[in-house]
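Thread: NDP complex, take 2
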Amino acid sequence: MILYGGAVDGRQNWRTALATALGEANLAASVAMDPEAIPIDEVDYLLLDADGPTVSLAKATRLKAIFSLWAGVDWLVCRDDLPRNVPLVHMAEDGMTRGMCDYVAGHVMRYHLGLDDFLSGRPARDWDTTAPALSSQRTVGVMGLGVLGGAAARLLRDIGFQVSGWSRRRKDIPSITCFAGHEELATFLARSQILVVLLPLTGSTERIVDASLLKQLPEGACLINAARGGLIDDSDLIASLEEGTLKHATLDAFREEPLPRSHRFRSHPRITVTPHIASVTRPETAARAIVRQISRTEAGLPLEHVVDWSAGY
Ligand code: NDP
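Output below.
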């Protein structure tokens, strides 16, 4: 039994997507869409998102896995009623990855080409035939080389940028300079003219983008935060923009969402706000990813993208 415990307005799409994915995988399973209509002790696989109804797990004795319908699990790992002996899986699916790659590539390109200058109708110089920098002359740093950061870094590399990445454990990705751990952060930052943040929000990453980090970026760097608002120290970010250390920031996620209309980020001339749309879980592709994982479990294979409770993501 699979129980969808996500947002109520997503039930119809998810019902269809799960039925299609189960059919494609030739996997027999019953699917329930309303947590109130089904005893939790009959559920094998539970799907949850932050906008769904509260599902009490006290009597969830059969659970084989809990799937977060969101890539980030910061909203889930803080719940103290989640059984630690049941694998918690974070969302990793092709549609979401593709969406994030599109978002990151678009905003990196905007900075790389200096598009704002032209779109504003007030270019710094009226006529200038100097050859613009090529992508191969631009350095981009990606903080977080997981499902989304890894894919975005590869795409930027394939476009032609000089790409570096930073993660907790060392990675080996062709033609991407990979840094790991706190001791290598300074070197990574120093070569990131455009910094893309795709870290999870955990006890170790909260407010990681603060004054001391921003100071280590090259003069006039640009920032793209497509992950979580809590990764940023909001006041330090504003100060860095005012001082000119940072040239511009594109922010997609915020401490308070929706971002209040009166928030200073909204009116700041060198901040672009996007409304947490960098990427979303797409039921069609996500249902396939979940069904693939269920097939793996039923075949005795280990689940992928399981949350490490001690690391918090
Ligand atoms: P993953 O868990 O796959 O990857 C996380 C990456 O961050 C890993 O490379 C990990 O290192 C690295 N990392 C974690 N902690 C640290 C640390 N303390 N120091 C250095 N590196 C660290 O996550 P995803 O790529 O799937 O997603 C990233 C985040 O993006 C999500 O947590 C979510 O918050 C956000 N998101 C935002 C969306 C939006 O629309 N704005 C949409 C979807 C996701 P290692 O590889 O060593 O484990």
